[in-house]
Here is the input.
Amino acid sequence: MGYSYSGMVDGLKTFYSSMRKFNVEIGTFEHKYNNVISDAIFDTRDSGGWKLTFIKRASGDVLCISIQKGYRFSITGNTEYNAFIEYFGIGSGKGQFSIKDFVNYLDKQIPTEYKLSDNKRKAILKYNKLDNESNGIYPIGIKNWGVIHARNPELPEDKYHRTAKNLLKTKELYPDIYNAIKDMDITILYGTNSGEKTEKIKAGKLDYKN
Here is the structure.
């Protein structure tokens, strides 16, 4: 039989409850173990199975762990276990390592409240761009397609509208902005650098007349 482990991580349950207050499905926090500093990404979008992905800040190396029902940190098979110990540089000698101790240490590092920041937004996009048609985390402008179509009646009605991926990106990075525009045909424009309108948009001061 191959390696198998499944252990509950109580901190993920509390963390997920905090994520849901913002109506987001991807959360991230800093994780440190054995001199490896990672961005841990908790992705709950797939109803078929959640996952906790570690991304090394130094190299960008990635480790994906299945989170089974009941917030259980799960490793199944030797291939997954070998990837785990390689990622964290864990020795294989007897008595050197306990997966249970690792999970307990992980549990202590999970924040009880999820707080979004620019660094967390960058970590999320490093994990998944969410929208391949836009780069960066900074909102630099908006396009109100309802106004644009009204001013330009020659535009085809079946084109030039907000995309689902743009809305998803806004939902995960800026839930307050998402709540303000989710029922409107508005695209948030993103940039890799902050623009002159960025702070106003972050504060929810949107110019709907463009």
Remarks:
- Residues 36 and 88 are 6 Å apart (CA to CA).
- DSSP finds eight helices and eight strands in the chain.
- The radius of gyration is 20 Å.
- Strands lie at 4-8, 26-33, 36-43, 50-56, 62-68, 72-76, 138-144, 186-191.
